[in-house]
Design goal:
Layout: H1 10-22, E1 33-38, E2 47-52, E3 57-62, H2 65-83, E4 93-102, H3 131-145, E5 155-165, E6 174-181
Parallel strand pairs: 4-5
Antiparallel strand pairs: 1-6, 2-3, 4-6
């Protein structure tokens, strides 16, 4: 299921338009590409296999479900919009991902100080979602776009981080993606 540009939130459309207006031509396969995918990052990668007795076939199910698939499709759509039409990167690629997750309400103070983070709140997210599974979902989404690389096996270098954002101060959850030749 492909996502049309008109299906994306208005601020994502504006961001894509701004990035596209900076260059009149599509980026080359050797260019460094940086963009932001707005939305709550989802995971991918946990698979289950079972045998269906009625059909006589083995079935593989992705545990991320429909939300994980929608996130991958969203990543693919934004990637296609930002990169445009170009040949995939021919060789090794480096992928840097900075995930920004919403801070839970329990991290904030109450009353008139409800916009302030508690001193006891952790600085970095150490719980779920798992960083490597979020990485896998973004890699799969970029691979679906068919414009950055032919296969995510080309990613040989990279760095991944996950941090909190404070939505009460206007920060947005999502992922900042940097793709460059390795």
């Amino acid at each position: 299921m492909a996502i049309r540009r008109s299906d994306l939130p208005q601020r994502v459309q504006e961001q894509i338009a701004a990035q596209l207006s900076r260059s009149e031509t599509a980026p080359k396969a050797t260019d460094r590409i940086v963009f932001f995918v707005d939305g709550l990052p989802r995971t991918a990668g946990s698979k289950r296999a079972f045998f269906n007795r009625k059909t006589g076939r083995s079935v593989i199910v992705d545990a991320s479900g429909a939300e994980g698939t929608r996130w991958q499709d969203h990543v693919a759509a934004v990637t296609r919009q930002v990169i445009g039409r170009r040949d995939p990167m021919p060789g090794a690629a480096a992928l840097t991902l900075h995930f920004f997750l919403p801070r839970p309400d329990s991290h904030f103070r109450t009353g008139r100080n409800r916009h302030m983070v508690r001193l006891s709140a952790p600085e970095k997210p150490t719980g779920k979602p798992d960083l490597t599974k979020m990485l896998r979902a973004v890699e799969d989404g970029i691979t679906k776009a068919l414009v950055a690389w032919k296969d995510d096996a080309q990613v040989t270098d990279g760095c991944q981080k996950k941090r909190y954002v404070n939505q009460r101060q206007g920060e947005r959850p999502g992922v900042r993606v940097t793709i460059e030749p390795a």
